[in-house]
C-alpha cells in the first residue's frame, strides 16, 4: 500500500539492568586505607583505577611507559582480555582504530606509582601490577576488592557473611546484593565514581575525551610530537578536576 516499513529497535538487554552505584566521600575514605589490603600493590591498583576512571582490564594492562610523569598524564592504549591477551586498542576499538586516550592523574597517585616502579625495578615495557609472576588476575583482584569492602565496614563483616553462607573457602561468594543498603558497589563503581566526581568541574563533552566513551582517530601517543598535540587537546578544566578527585584523607603508602 506504499507504506515504508521501518525496522524496530529494541534496547540491549545487557546494557539496561544492574548499573553500578558510586562510592560516597565517606566510602572512599574508609576504603582507601593500607590496612584493608594484603599488599600495597592492591591499594595502588584500585587507586589508579579511580584516579583515571579506568576499566579493570586497562588497569591490569598498565605498563610503566604509559605513565608520562613530567606531563602528569597516563596513556591508555589497551587492556587485558579475560584470556590473558593484551590488546593494542581500547574498548570498542581495533588495531586500525585503537581509540587511545590520554588521562591526567592526581599528583598523589603519580608519586606512589613512581615509588612503586623504582622500588620494584619495573622496566619501561613491564606491567606495573604484577602478582605471582604475571599481571594480577581478575579473580585475585575481585577477591581482594570485596575483602577490602568488608574490612572497611562498607560490606557486612566476616561473621555475618559466614552466617549467611556468603563466605566460603576464604572467599566471598554471592556478591550480588552484598551491600546492606542495597547498593551495587562493584569494581566498575570506581569508574562511575570518577565520572561523577570529575563532572563537578568539567562539562560532559570534555569529560568524554578522558573516559573513552567517544570515537577517536588513530594517534601514536608514544610519539612525542603527537603526544604534545594530544595534550593540547585536553581542556584546562581537566587538571583542576583531577587535583580535586581524591579525598584529602587518602595518604601515601
Summed over residues and divided by their number, the pLDDT gives a mean of 82
Strand percentage lies at 5-15%
CATH topology: hpI Integrase, Chain A
Could you spell the SSE succession in H and E letters?
HHHEEEHEEHHEEHHHH
> What does the largest sheet look like?
3 strands, antiparallel
What would you report as the Rg, rounded to the nearest angstrom? 20 Å
* CATH architecture descriptor text: Orthogonal Bundle
The best one-word shape is globular
Structural class by helix and strand composition: mainly alpha
* Count of the domains: 1
- What's the number of extended β-strand segments? 7
Helical proportion, percent range: 25-40%
CATH top level assignment: Mainly Alpha
Query: How large is the count of helical segments?
Result: 10
CATH H level, superfamily name: Intergrase catalytic core
Strands across the major sheet, in which order?
Answer: 1-2-3
The low-pLDDT segments are 214-226
Our measurement of the CA-to-CA distance between the termini, rounded to an integer number of angstroms, reads 73 Å
Protein described:
The protein has ten helices and seven strands. With 253 residues, the protein is mainly α. It has a single domain, classed as hpI Integrase, Chain A. The strands form three sheets. The protein has a three-stranded antiparallel beta sheet with strand order 1-2-3. Strands 4-5 form a two-stranded antiparallel ribbon. A two-stranded antiparallel ribbon has the order 6-7. α2 packs across α7. It starts with 24 loop residues before the first helix and ends in a 10-residue tail after the last helix. About 5% of the residues have low confidence.
